[in-house]
């Protein structure tokens, strides 16, 4: 699965995207965040408090309890500030 | 509708002309231009976005606006990259037979660009840079457009 | 604020530039352009006004808008005389630090231009001419801006 | 006193302005309309039904029962239709 990171999420993780093979038990966005938080202290700092993050599944805004199903890409980012 | 996300500056008048030229059914054209303010010594904004999702998300909101108001034209341009004080950031043009739809649709589209389109602003003050926090007031403003029962 | 009543056409982009050039405190510029629609075979509009009162009445409403919203610039142009289909009739530009004031003030000023400024439109259909009736819906729309207790 | 007429008021009266010396008993806009209505059938058609007219005293919107006082000019016109 392709993961994308934007704004300070990208800066804190030191990368804008990566591709991971996820274990079968990671079925929701919340489970994905928990899985990522366990990878390293950097990931724990970003994904330990997912309430300050938003996410998109296949380029649509999504909720933490949404199923990943056959998603091709998941993006994590702070609340948007365009306009 | 035409949606652009670009580093280049834009010419609002030329865009309005392209949207309306040769038409005699348009009675109202509302143009919103957002610009970089030099508050507190800001030296530049840097705007980042999510290519692909940005265009799709804006198109969804233009569709919603067109379903809600009888629009005869919509043009949206959002700039990305480094923008100095006074620079144009965003353009929304709406054209309609009557002014109410044109005003409300432009206002609606700006609220949704602020709260849903995947752009992120970083403020630069000399060598210091900080990501802009989302404003709760923008969410409240966007909520005005929800119909009863929507969350 | 600058208010013009004129037969000549106007250039909205040049007016917006004049209002905002060299300023770094403006974050939002809203431009409203009204145009002549060729509904039902209309061949032209003829606009008449009350010289002297028109400018004073518009200035009172610009003062009211400035008292209500923190505006950094206002420009109003209203054309008179004979205007063909597609012609520009009216321009309202409002500039402010934030978009809400700019949107609301432009909307407010258009409502008051419609319901209070002494202009009268005559529609021409070939050799037939008829004075446009005032619309109750315009009065209702303008009434949105009244505070409780105002009549 | 200078009187001004606009749009179909001007057309029906066949003039855009005129200057009249008013009798002292004409003190309000409503009394002025009644005085004008009595001048001729053309004036009666316009000023007999003042509810379809608006007026301004010295270039400010005014009401029918407003006193004319030392007004220099009074204008009669249909409801405005600019914008």
Helix-strand layout with pairing:
The complex is a heterotetramer, with 2 copies of chain A (83 residues) and 2 copies of chain B (151 residues).
Chain A: E1 2-5, H1 7-13, E2 17-19, H2 29-37, H3 41-47, E3 54-57, E4 60-62, E5 73-77
Parallel strand pairs in A: 1-5
Antiparallel strand pairs in A: 1-2, 3-4, 3-5
Chain B: E1 2-6, H1 12-20, E2 28-35, E3 44-49, H2 53-68, E4 71-79, E5 81-83, E6 88-96, H3 99-115, E7 119-125, E8 128-131, H4 136-143
Parallel strand pairs in B: 1-4
Antiparallel strand pairs in B: 2-6, 3-5, 3-7, 4-6, 7-8
Strand order of the largest sheet of chain B: 1-4-6-2
Q: Which geometry of chain A do the CA atoms define?
A: globular
What spatial order of strands do you see in the largest sheet of chain A? 2-1-5-3-4
Mean pLDDT of chain B: 95
CATH structural fold name of chain A = Ubiquitin-like (UB roll)
Strand residue content of chain B? 25-35%
Query: In whole angstroms, how far apart are the ends of chain B?
Result: 27 Å
Number of domains of chain B: 1
Q: Considering the protein shown, what is the CATH homologous superfamily of chain A?
A: Beta-grasp domain
Order of helices and strands of chain B: EHEEHEEEHEEH
Any idea of the CATH topology of chain B? Aldehyde Oxidoreductase, domain 3
């Amino acid at each position: 699965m392709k993961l994308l990171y934007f704004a300070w999420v990208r800066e804190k993780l030191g990368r804008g995207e990566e591709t991971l093979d996820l274990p079968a038990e990671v079925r929701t966005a919340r489970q994905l965040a928990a899985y990522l938080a366990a990878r390293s202290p950097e990931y724990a700092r970003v994904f330990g408090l997912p309430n300050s993050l938003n996410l998109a599944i296949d380029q649509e805004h999504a909720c933490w309890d949404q199923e990943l199903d056959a998603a091709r890409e998941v993006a994590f980012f702070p609340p948007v500030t365009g306009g | 509708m035409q949606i652009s996300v670009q580093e280049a500056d834009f010419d609002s008048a030329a865009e309005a002309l392209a949207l309306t030229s040769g038409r005699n059914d348009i009675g109202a054209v509302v143009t919103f231009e957002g610009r970089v303010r030099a508050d507190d010594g800001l030296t530049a904004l840097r705007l980042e976005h999510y290519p692909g999702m940005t265009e799709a998300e804006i198109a969804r909101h233009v569709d919603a606006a067109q379903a809600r108001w009888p629009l005869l034209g919509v043009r949206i341009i959002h700039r990305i990259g480094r923008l100095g004080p006074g620079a144009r950031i965003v353009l929304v043009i709406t054209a309609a037979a009557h002014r109410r739809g044109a005003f409300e649709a432009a206002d609606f589209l700006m609220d949704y660009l602020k709260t849903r389109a995947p752009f992120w602003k970083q403020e630069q003050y000399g060598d210091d840079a900080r990501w802009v926090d989302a404003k709760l007031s923008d969410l409240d403003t966007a909520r005005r457009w929800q119909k009863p029962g929507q969350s």
